[in-house]
Structures are given as structure tokens and as C-alpha cells.
Amino acid sequence: MPKKFPLFIDLTEKKVVVYGAGVIASRRVETLLAFTSSLTVFAPEASERVQRAAEEGYLVWKREAYQEGTIPADAFMVLAATNDAWVNTQIWKECKEKHILVNVCSDRDLCDFQFPGIASRGDLVIGINAGGQDHRLAKTWTDKIKKEVTEDGFNNQTKTSSDISKA
Ligand SMILES: C[C@@]1(CC(=O)O)C2=NC(=C\c3[nH]c(c(CCC(=O)O)c3CC(=O)O)Cc3[nH]c(c(CC(=O)O)c3CCC(=O)O)/C=C3\N/C(=C\2)[C@@H](CCC(=O)O)[C@]3(C)CC(=O)O)/[C@H]1CCC(=O)O
Ligand SMILES: NC(=O)c1ccc[n+]([C@@H]2O[C@H](COP(=O)([O-])OP(=O)(O)OC[C@H]3O[C@@H](n4cnc5c(N)ncnc54)[C@H](O)[C@@H]3O)[C@@H](O)[C@H]2O)c1
């Protein structure tokens, strides 16, 4: 697979839609909540994390399975993260028809973009991608860099924009 170029996109005002609310979708929802305030999750069943985030008003959880033709046309980005590969492919097809950016967690060949591992602190955001061939490599490096960023290596010399504005 060719190397992917890391784009750092402002998602604040953009509608993000996630199908599925299990292990993988919840991990990604948790990551996305730091970047967007417009997140809708469609799933008949949701993890406690997603349910709590919905109760606290951080996202909208629609307790519904995917239904053909209903993907919001104004969605900027869709994650197909159900545990049904056929459903994920249907979601991909509809997004293609509607020209919506789509990621399919069960099939790397259907991804317009790959979901990164993320290590972040303050204004620093590090996205990690291993090209879609070796997911464990992506995880190993995400864990290493997260540790470095949140613990040992992130020293006072690394300033955030709020630090700079205070200076
Ligand atoms: C980075 C991270 C972000 C995240 O997921 O949050 C991520 N995968 C992570 C971990 C992970 N994924 C899988 C395992 C078990 C591996 C094993 O057992 O060997 C582990 C390891 C683990 O979980 O320990 C299984 C798996 N993954 C994909 C498929 C389908 C396929 O390859 O077609 C299958 C088979 C599913 C099945 O069996 O059906 C596909 C994708 N996974 C991606 C991202 C995209 C680019 C990855 C890259 O950078 O190369 C890509 C291509 C598309 C996408 O989904 O965007 C996260 C690590 C960071 C973190 O954990 O924080
Ligand atoms: N990309 C990755 O990193 C990665 C890693 C492991 C697994 N996977 C893939 O992710 C898939 C999901 O795994 P999981 O562990 O999150 O599953 P899970 O069983 O924990 O959760 C599945 C979720 O999908 C929802 N769902 C099922 N049918 C639906 C439908 N028609 N419409 C909307 N929502 C629906 C369920 O309600 C549930 O919330 C796996 O099948 C596998 O292919 C991807």
C-alpha cells in the first residue's frame, strides 16, 4: 500500500457520523471527541462509554441500525465501524454515492483515509500510521509515543499556544 500523507483537519464545525458503538467505534469516538462537537453515533447497542458521552451531551446516540439511504448528506466524515462487514460495505457504497469521506474499519481497501493512532498534549497532536499493513506496529508506536508525550519526554521546554500567549 502507498504511504499516506498526514492531513491535520479542523473538524470543529464538521459533522462526523459513526456507525457502530462497540469496542472499535468507542475507541475512535473517544479520540474524536477531542476534535469535534458534532458527533452522531448510530447503533442498536452502545458501550457504556458511548452511552455516558450521550447522556452528558457530548454526542448524539441514535439507537438505530444503519438503514440504506439515510446517511446525512451534509456529513463531512463517516466511520463504518459495525461488526457486520456487509453493512460496513453498504455504508461505504452510500458514502461514495454522496461524496462523503469514509473509513471502513473492517476493510482497509475501502478507506478514503485511515484512522490514526493519536498522542496529544496541549496543542501538540501526533498522528501515527503504519500504512494499513501492520496494525500492531501502529499500536506499538502509538503506545510508545503516548508514553513519551504524556510522561517522560514532554518537558517544560515544549510550549503550548496558551503558554506562549501568557508569556
Ligand atoms: C491505529 C489504529 C487506530 C484505531 O483503531 O483507533 C488502527 N488500528 C489499530 C489497532 C488494531 N487494529 C487491528 C488490530 C488487531 C491486529 C492483529 O490481531 O494482528 C489492532 C491492534 C490492537 O488492537 O491491539 C485489526 C484491524 N485493523 C484494520 C483491519 C481491517 C483491515 O486491515 O482490512 C483489522 C482486522 C479486523 C478484522 O479482523 O476483521 C484496519 C485498520 N486499522 C487502522 C487503525 C487503520 C490503519 C492502521 C495503520 O496505521 O496501519 C486501518 C487500515 C483502517 C482503519 O480502520 O482506519 C489502532 C492502533 C492504535 C491504538 O490502539 O491506539
Ligand atoms: N480497524 C481496527 O482497528 C479494527 C480492530 C479490530 C477489529 N476491527 C473490525 O471492527 C469490527 C467491529 O469490532 P468491534 O469489536 O467494535 O465490535 P462490537 O461487537 O464490539 O460492536 C459492534 C457494534 O456494531 C453495532 N452494529 C451492529 N450492526 C449494526 C448496524 N446494522 N448498524 C449500526 N450499528 C450496528 C452494534 O450495535 C455494536 O455497537 C470487527 O468486526 C472487525 O472487522 C477493526
TrEMBL record:
The keyword Transmembrane helix does not apply. Pfam families: NAD_binding_7 (PF13241). It catalyses: precorrin-2 + NAD(+) = sirohydrochlorin + NADH + 2 H(+). This is precorrin-2 dehydrogenase. It is an enzyme of class 1 (oxidoreductase). Its EC number is 1.3.1.76. NCBIfam families: cysG_Nterm.
